[in-house]
Amino acid sequence: TTGNLENNDSKDDTIRIDGDSYPVDDFTNVTSSILSKIKRKLHLRPSHPISILRNLIETQLNDFRHIHAFNPIVSTRQNFDDLGFPIDHVGRNKTDSYYINRSVMLRTHTSAHQLQILSAGENKFLVSADVYRRDEIDSSHYPVFHQMEGVQVFDIAEAKEQVSREITKMGQFNYSSVLISNEDEKDSDTSIDNRKNPIQACHPIEAANSVGLHLKHTLNELVKRLFKDEKELKVRWIDAYFPFTSPSWEMEVLYQGKWLEICGCGVILQDIMNKAERPNEIGWAFGLGLERIAMVLFDIPDIRLFWSKDPRFLDQFTFNEIKKFKPFSKYPASARDISFWVDNNTDFHENNFCELVRSVAGDLVEDAKMIDEFIHPVSKRRSLCYRIIYRSMDRNVTNEEINQIQLNVQKEVQTQLGVTLR
Ligand code: FA5
Ligand code: MG
């Protein structure tokens, strides 16, 4: 439906974004509040933590080409098909992504630009950009965030030699209290689950192992240097799956007692290299979550803070410096529960619920979690209860204000999600 776009001054059947007009259809689900984030470009504001971090990484990887200015509006082909996403991949669902219409969307990741840049012949590049996803609500998820894509390409026939030269050049950084587990397995392939996450059949094993080793070495050295002043930071590698890399891994850091995923990566599917008309080359790619890294580095406890326009937040940061964030007083939280019946024939999706709560409460919502679920023994209807935590990052919110927001949430949930409040 286009009901969410009332504030977008457009005729009913088109959306205007930045002077361009797009037809809407049954897939359209972008909201004006999401579109309003496009112009913020946090990664390009010199003394914003996201931009400070981008710049620090670019300084570490200074012989990569640094790209920042790609439009977030991409085709579904760029975001999915070019990368070999299967037709039924969940990421393609309207519940997970923001669509302008069936064939145009807000990119969900910086990988959307891989093929076009590889096709242009680049060998080493970093793409930093805002990306958009419908997702859950908590302190480490926000519907708009920033990624940095890194890609490096080698000749298949010479990968081993090229990698050992590069690793010698890069060296090892030892003045860091970053502890990386699984690191000593890096020169074997024991950490790869070869059934789900195999070396590609078209790759000589030695070339694939060398490229995987170089990828892990590059990221290990990057995090050791970025986090060198942390007291002690635990980092671990785990196996992962992506439609466009194999083998694939994820990197996680231990933050506030939980493993926080900061990056996905792997050896690029050869099919993508072939589409880029580079069949004799092999490459790796990574996608870093910049907010997640910045949260650890700057001690920023909640992802909403990045969007704050409050000078008490913005004025704490300086170009090229890592300074721990000093929280201005933490305002009290208020919890409200909402319970409803979902009919058997209603297709309820948590991301739709979260989107709705965000659209009513804006950045006052801190967290939303299902706390109870049961099926009525007779009617077989499902009952769900969600606990919503409200808290402002920069002011006290009165109980009356929260009550009013919660009333609006209840009203919208009932009318837009087709559920019955209990
Ligand atoms: C990807 O987006 C892949 N494109 C990464 C990749 C690139 C894999 C190249 C292989 C090769 P993923 O969905 O896991 O993967 O997201 C990458 C990172 O973005 C995550 O590790 C996390 O740090 C961050 N991230 C994901 N969702 C959110 C969110 N809602 N809010 C903040 N950060 C997020
Ligand atoms: Mg992931």
Automatic annotation (TrEMBL):
GO terms for biological process: phenylalanyl-tRNA aminoacylation. It catalyses: tRNA(Phe) + L-phenylalanine + ATP = L-phenylalanyl-tRNA(Phe) + AMP + diphosphate + H(+). Residues 53-327 form the Aminoacyl-transfer RNA synthetases class-II family profile domain. Keywords: Aminoacyl-tRNA synthetase, ATP-binding, Ligase, Mitochondrion, Nucleotide-binding, Protein biosynthesis, Transit peptide. It is found in: Mitochondrion matrix. One of its GO terms (molecular function) is tRNA binding. Pfam families: FDX-ACB, tRNA-synt_2d. It comes from the Eukaryota. Its EC number is 6.1.1.20. The keyword Protein biosynthesis applies. Residues 329-422 form the FDX-ACB domain. GO terms for cellular component: mitochondrial matrix. Coiled coil: none annotated. Is responsible for the charging of tRNA(Phe) with phenylalanine in mitochondrial translation. Belongs to the class-II aminoacyl-tRNA synthetase family. This is Phenylalanine--tRNA ligase, mitochondrial. It comes from Ambispora leptoticha.
